[in-house]
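Researcher: Next entry in the queue.
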Amino acid sequence: MKRTKKTHPDLIFETKHWEVYLNPDQYCLGRSVVVAKRDVGSMSDLKEEEWIDFAKLVKRFESGFKEAFGATMFNWTCLMNNAYQSLPPNPHVHWHFRPRYAKSVKFEGIKFDDKEFGHHYAKGTDFEVPEKVFLKIIKRIKESL
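Model: Structure for this entry, 145 residues:
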């Protein structure tokens, strides 16, 4: 089922070509997923207007995270490996967005430490926050955009 505002309250915002969702894993405070609205299986199949829209989204999102949480830098990845773990593969272009923090951030009484800052993020560091905090993260991001 395609993610929509009605089925996924974790939608942060959307543009003409992209939807942005908060990821359940909040090891990197504000970790999100940016999903192409159009069914597109490869970055090389993105249209120019989708790239332009994505560039505007990146500027808006990174600026908002600096304001909301004091993020130092950002990691963007488009891996799509999981789409090929079953047959037939069904890739869909999406980006993993990880804000990175040089200093600890405290939000809603929870301390977020980016222990791998300045390095590739470590696998297996999943950190789920309580639903109430998860929704407040979304609210704070929306307020900063």
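Model: The radius of gyration is 15 Å.
Researcher: Noted, moving on.
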